[in-house]
Amino acid sequence: MATDVAVITGAGSGIGAALAVELADRGLSVALIGRRRDALERTCASLPEGATGFVLPGDIAIRDDRQRLITKLGERLEPTGARLRYLVHNAGVGEPATGIEGIDPDDLAQALAVNVTAPLALTQGLLPLLRAAYPSRVLMVGAGIADRPQPGTGSYGISKKALARLFEQLTMEFARSAVTEPDVALFQPGLVDTPGIRTHLEAARRCGLPHVDYLDQALAAGQSRSAEAVAGAMAEALIDISTEHFAGAFLRP
Ligand SMILES: NC(=O)c1ccc[n+]([C@@H]2O[C@H](COP(=O)([O-])OP(=O)(O)OC[C@H]3O[C@@H](n4cnc5c(N)ncnc54)[C@H](OP(=O)(O)O)[C@@H]3O)[C@@H](O)[C@H]2O)c1
């Protein structure tokens, strides 16, 4: 039987790493993308016994890296007949900042590159494989901040809003395509206790931002979800729910 493959960006930590374990546990071969090879290899080593995973180190903000990743995936999958069933745009960045003067345009450019341009370019580059594997699915990881501007969250919030708009655009374009396209959904995880949120919290503290108190309290009181719990909900969305409930949907855990 042909192997089904899931590609996960940002698979070296947090939600992406937990999702790799969850999907491998459900029998998928997982392709792990991120900049730090050692982090990806740790994720690979944590997969359940007998699972298959492979690391694809690369910076998805860089065009040549994206192209190399797309080419490598094709070379890896095509000779074996493996099918690219799931593409998860999970990597996300964006630094907090103090006031409007504090928003660094270069950080906004980086957040847009990772959170918006890369999901578009990787989806475009992998479309032949996703079409050939239909029913295939693309899942984008959004954030509630996209619709709730808060002090100091400019680069991250603006780029996540743009990602939500990209999701709408892809949904519309795919619906009118002459060929069968992958189904696309946007998943908003809520507050999740990950290395990413902990790093954000410390940077926001240095900026003196007001949402630090909320984050401190929520994390201390266990009001956040674990990466594993969110990964379970994402895996369920990817694999278990019907096309009718997945395609074009805005999903939460
Ligand atoms: N945690 C939360 O409360 C929360 C809430 C809402 C939404 N989210 C979203 O959930 C997703 C995962 O977040 P997380 O909390 O699990 O964060 P995380 O632990 O920081 O994971 C993000 C991953 O993205 C990778 N990454 C960053 N820049 C990259 C680049 N240029 N190229 C390739 N990979 C890159 C990082 O690995 P490298 O550094 O090795 O590249 C890292 O492993 C993000 O999209 C985030 O916005 C999280």
Can you tell me about this structure?
This is SDR family oxidoreductase. Its EC number is 1.-.-.-. The chain is of the alpha/beta class. The protein has ten helices and nine strands. The protein has one domain (4-251): 3-Layer(aba) Sandwich (Rossmann fold), CATH 3.40.50.720. The strands form two sheets. Strands 3-2-1-4-5-6-9 form a seven-stranded parallel sheet, sandwiched between helices. Helix 1 crosses helix 9 (227-240). The protein is globular, with a radius of gyration of 18 Å. It binds NADP nicotinamide-adenine-dinucleotide phosphate. Residues 9-10, 12-16, 33-36, 39, 59-61, 90-93, 114, 141, 143, 189, 191-192, 194-197 line the site of NADP nicotinamide-adenine-dinucleotide phosphate (NAP). NADP nicotinamide-adenine-dinucleotide phosphate binds at residues 9-10, 12-16, 33-36, 39, 59-61, 90-93, 114, 141, 143, 189, 191-192, 194-197.
Task: Map the helices and strands.
Layout: E1 4-9, H1 14-25, E2 29-34, H2 37-45, E3 53-57, H3 63-77, E4 83-89, H4 99-102, H5 105-132, E5 137-141, H6 154-175, E6 183-187, E7 192-193, H7 195-206, H8 211-220, E8 225-226, H9 227-240, H10 243-246, E9 250-251
Parallel strand pairs: 1-2, 1-4, 2-3, 4-5, 5-6, 6-9, 7-8
Helix pairs in contact: 1-9, 3-5, 5-6, 7-8
Bound molecules: NADP nicotinamide-adenine-dinucleotide phosphate (NAP).
